[in-house]
Amino acid sequence: MFSKRLIYILLMVLTTGTTFFALKESVLSLTFEDPLQTGGDIQVVLGKIWKFLYMVALAIVPIMAIIAGFMFMTAGGNPEKLKKAKNLLLYLAIGIAIVLLAGGIVNLIKMILGVEG
User: Fold this and answer.
1) What residue numbers bound the domain in which 7 lies?
2) Does residue 79 share a domain with residue 56?
3) How many helices and strands in the chain, by DSSP H and E?
4) Long-range CB pairs of 98-103, under 8 A, 24+ apart, other chains included
5) Of 9, 29, 53, 61, which sits 20 to 30 A from 71 (CA to CA)?
6) Is the pTM of this model over 0.70?
């Protein structure tokens, strides 16, 4: 039993090792294109990431508002469910404020520092 397992492991190591050696030249010569097309500038990369996260956040807002409204409608006077719905609306308002103010703060800092773009 032990010898079969040892032979199997040895065979796997040799097979994997020879595959890596055979592919070494082709793997090392690979070049990757910049998928974001930023030219390697960190400000552009961060700007694109920010725009993506901003769009995701703005897409989530109406969904959460609908869920909160549904929770209000189905609470049926239950104080615990009403509290959950009110908390969801509060967190939604705080989240919207954070998302909107974050963009404004970034633009304000850019304006103060005299950075364009």
Assistant:
1) 1-31
2) yes
3) 3, 0
4) 99/54, 99/57, 99/58, 103/50, 103/54
5) 53
6) no
- Burial (Cβ within 10 Å: 0-12, 13-18, ≥19) of residue 85: buried
* Identity of the residue numbered 85: A
d(CA 37, CA 44): 9
Cα distances (Å, whole numbers) of residue 82 to 72, 73, 74, 89: 6, 9, 9, 11
Q: Which two tokens stand for residue 53?
A: 């996260």
Query: Residues 28-46: what's their mean pLDDT?
Result: 69
Number of domains the chain contains: 2
Residue-averaged pLDDT of the chain? 81
17: which residues sit within 8 A by CB, 6+ positions away? none
